[in-house]
Amino acid sequence: METLDGVEYLTVAEAAGRRGVTPAAIYRAVSEGRLAYARIFGRRVLRVSDVDAWQSAGHGGRRPGQGRPPKTKSETPATEEQP
């Protein structure tokens, strides 16, 4: 996290990690105009407040598959025993 003139900024990777999404989701939100970014020293950075507001608006979230319970034995395909 970088601070410049009292404003905290995150890199794309940091923003993705903070929100539990992929960097591609951050880039997609930027390209769709849902998140703004700035270039500081040649790096794309996003304001922490913008990233937090984007998440609370219902965008982003956990990556697919995270937090799913493991399959139970009844959900796995049955195998026949060989004599």
Can you characterise this structure?
By secondary structure, the chain is α+β, with helices and mostly antiparallel strands. The protein has a domain at 2-56: Multidrug-efflux Transporter Regulator, Chain: A, Domain 2. 31% of the residues lie in helices and 19% in strands. The chain has three helices and four strands, in the order ββααββα. The protein has helices spanning 12-19, 23-31, 48-56; strands at residues 2-4, 7-11, 38-40, 43-47. It has a four-stranded antiparallel beta sheet. A hairpin with a 2-residue loop joins β1 and β2. α1 packs across α2. It starts with a strand and ends in a 27-residue tail after the last helix. The model has no long low-confidence stretch (mean pLDDT 76).
CATH class of the domain at 2-56: Mainly Alpha
Rg calc? 20 Å
Helix content: 25-40%
Low-confidence stretches: none
Counted beta strands:
4
Task: Report how far the terminal alpha carbons are from each other.
Answer: 62 Å
CATH architecture of the domain at 2-56: Orthogonal Bundle
Broad shape: rod-shaped
List the total number of helices. 3
Order of helices and strands: EEHHEEH
Under CATH, the topology of the domain at 2-56 is which? Multidrug-efflux Transporter Regulator, Chain: A, Domain 2
By helix and strand content, what is the structural category?
alpha+beta
Biggest sheet, open or closed, and with what strands and sense? Answer: 4 strands, antiparallel
The oligomeric status of these chains comes to single chain
Strand order of the largest sheet: 1-2-4-3
What proportion strand? 15-25%
On the 0-100 scale, what is the average pLDDT?
76
